[in-house]
Amino acid sequence: MRFLAAGNPAVRAAGAVVLPTACALTLAACGSTPAPGSVPSAASSPEPSSSAPSSTSGSVTAAACTSAQLKITLTHTGALAGQAGGYLSFTNDGRVTCQMTGWPTVVAQTAAGSATTLGRAHSTMFGAWQEAKPLPVVTLQPGGSADAVVVSDDEPAGTSTNCPAPYVRLRVSPPGSSASQVVSAYLPGAKTYLPSCVAASGSPSAETSAITTPSSLPR
């Protein structure tokens, strides 16, 4: 099946600002707008207020997000170019800023109870995600979110004529955490559960991307 994912299009240095000589003579006439490609210094950047939830990529300055302070849901589901999947959304449901980086642990289960730990993807067709080096550190203020693409082939490989029974639930742990949450593996955008098709190598094709900012994925 090849349905388009919900919202398809599909990823992002600081420099010193040197004032011209004329500015030195007439400071009142010169603005403080940074040159293209530059960013304001930390000292001049106001901290986002808690009333405006945000997710940003940067260096580690807060504790890692735990399962207890996150709300995990499966969103933006669909199918594209032989893959079906969605975005695992991790929303900071607590009152303290936290950070996420790396791959979540996702264990997919069938209705019969068979469990498969999803592999680590380095790129995905669905979601058009590409691994960045180094991996981003995503800061989640209260109410802010981070995403990870979960995806699987939706067509049998080689001489197979069908795929095994699909996955009906996902047990998800944020990076660095052993605690998990269970979410449904149903993909409304593809009108099916997450497929459990195997790759041509015979290995399960289902994978998950590393944590990324919502703005880096097509919506």
What keyword list fits this structure?
219 residues; mainly beta; 2 domains; five-stranded mixed beta sheet; four-stranded antiparallel beta sheet; 2% helix; disordered N terminus
Describe the structure.
This protein is mostly beta strands and 219 residues long. The protein is built from one helix and 14 strands, in the order H-E-E-E-E-E-E-E-E-E-E-E-E-E-E. It has two domains: 13-46, no CATH class; 56-216, no CATH class. The strands form four sheets. A five-stranded mixed beta sheet has the order 2-3-9-14-7, with no helix packed on it. The protein has a four-stranded antiparallel beta sheet with strand order 6-5-10-11, with no helix packed on it. Strands 1-8-4 form a three-stranded antiparallel beta sheet, with no helix packed on it. The two termini are 20 Å apart. Mean pLDDT is 81; it is low at 1-52.
Q: Nutshell version of this structure?
A:
The chain has one helix spanning 21-25; strands at residues 55-57, 70-80, 83-92, 98-100, 105-110, 115-117, 119-120, 138-140, 145-153, 167-173, 181-184, 186-187, 192-193, 207-208.
What's the helical proportion of residues? under 10%
Tell me, rounded to a whole number, the average pLDDT.
Answer: 81
- Largest sheet, strands/sense/barrel: 5 strands, mixed
Structural class computed from helices and strand pairing: mainly beta
H-E order = HEEEEEEEEEEEEEE
